[in-house]
Amino acid sequence: MNDTFLKACRGEKTDYTPIWIMRQAGRYLPEYQKVRGNVTFLELCKTPELCVEVTLQPIDILNVDAAILFSDILIPLEAMGAKLEFHEGRGPVFPDPIKNQADLDKLIVPDPAEHLGFVMETIRLLRKELNVPLIGFSGAPFTNATYLIEGGSSKVFWETKKMMYTAPELFHGMMQKITDCTILYLKAQAEAGAQALQIFDSWAGVLAPCDFKTFALPYVQEIIRELRKATDIPLIYFANNGSTLLELSESSGADVLGLDWRINIGDAAKRVGKVALQGNLDPFSLLLPKDKLKKRIGNILDDAKDTNGHIFNLGHGIHQFTPPEQAIAAVEFVHELSGR
Ligand code: CP3
User: Fold this and answer.
1) To bridge 256 with a disulfide, which of 51, 228, 276, 300 should be the other Cys (CB 3.0-4.6 Å)?
2) Structure confidence by residue, pLDDT tens digits, 11-57
C-alpha cells in the first residue's frame, strides 16, 4: 500500500508530498455524472456498490495519494431523524428545522451499525479495493448544527446565531446531541476500516474567536478525545475560513489541521506546534494556465518546507466546473516538484 499520506499525517519523512483533493469524487468528473444520472444523490449515498465506484474514480483518474469515502456530512443528521432532501441547484434542505427543545427531543442518537450500515459497508468494500489509505469523515457539530437550524445552506446564519445568543442552553443541548452521534459514527468508521478521519467545519469561520471557543471548539475537542481512546489513526480538523482560529483549532487535539487558501502555509506553520498541515491551493487557481499553476504549486511546497508534515490539498472543495485535466496536472506537479 502507498502509505505516503499516513506518514505525512504523522509528521514522518516521505519521498514526496502526498496530495488528495477535497470533493475529489463529484460533479466535475463526467464519470461521476454518469453514475449520478441514474439515481438521486441520496440514493447514491445509500448504495455501497455505487459509493465504492465513485470513490475509486478519482484514484484512477487523478492519481491522488488518498481516497475519501463517498458520502455527505448530512447523512448522519438524517439518521438522527431529521428529514433531509437535496433539491437540484439549491443543495440540501431540512424542511423541518430545529426551533425549540421539543424539536430537539425528537432527534435520536443513532446506532451507526443499525442506521448507517450502508456507510460501514462502503468502507469495508473499499478497503478490499484500495491501494491508498481511506479517509472517513463527518461534519463538525457546529457546521452540522447550522444545517439543522437554518433548514439548509445559509449565508448569514441568522437563526444559528439567534439560538446561540438568545437560547444558549438549547444550542448547547443540540451541539451535545450531534457530538454524541458523531463520536459513535466516527468510531464505527474506524472500526470498519477507515485509516484516517477528517472533521469538516465548513462554517467555523463565521464565528468570532470567543464564540468559536465557547460554542464550537469544546465539542470538537470532545470528539477527538473520545476517538483517541478508541484508535490511533490520524485525525484531521478542517476549519474553513479559520486562519484567525488557528491556535484554537490546534487545541482541538487533531494530528493534522486543514487550511483554506486565505493564509500562507508558511505563516501558519510558524503559529502551530507539532501538527501537520493540509492544504492550501485556492480551488479556483486550478483555472490558471499550466505554467502558472505549476509555479503556484511550487510556491506552496516551498512555503510548507518547515511544516511538521505537509499533505497537499485545495483550500476547499474542487468547484464543479473545473476541467478534470487541470486537477490531473495539479497532482502531477505536486508529485514532480516535491520528489526528494
Ligand atoms: O469526494 C469527496 O470529498 C467525498 C464526498 C463528499 C461530499 N460532500 C459529496 C457531495 C464530502 C466529503 C462532502 C462534505 C460536505 N457536504 C461538506 C463539507 C465540505 C465543504 O464543502 O465545506 C458540506 C458543507 C456538505 C453539504 C452539502 N452536500 C452541500 C452544501 C451540497 C450541495 C452543494 C454542492 O456543493 O453541491 C452537498 C451535495 C454534495 N455532496 C454533492 C457531492 C458530490 C453534489 C451532489 C450532486 O451530485 O448533485
Assistant:
1) 276
2) 999 999 999 999 999 999 999 999 999 999 999 999 999 999 999 99
CA 157 to chain centre: 20
Which residues are catalytically annotated? 23, 27, 36, 72, 147
- Distance in angstroms (rounded) separating the CA atoms of residues 169 and 173: 6
Q: pLDDT grade, residue 325 (50/70/90)?
A: very high
127 in Cβ contact with 183 (< 8 Å):
no
Pick from 172, 171, 191: nearest CA to 183: 191
Q: Taking the domains of the chain in order of start, what are their residue ranges?
A: 4-338
Domain 4-338 annotated CATH 3.90.180.10: no
CA of 198 to the centre of ligand 1 (A): 14
| SS3 call for 107 | coil
Q: How far is the CA of 23 from the centre of ligand 1 (A)?
A: 7
Report yes or no: 10 and 17 within 8 Å, Cβ to Cβ.
no
* Distance (Å) of CA 252 to CA 91, 200, 220, 245, 267: 29, 13, 6, 11, 19
Beta carbons of 286 and 333 less than 8 angstroms apart: no
Sheet of strand 276-281: strand arrangement: 67-68, 134-139, 196-201, 235-239, 256-258, 276-281, 310-314
Atom of ligand 1 nearest to the CA of 58: 1
Say what the pLDDT of residue 89 is: 82
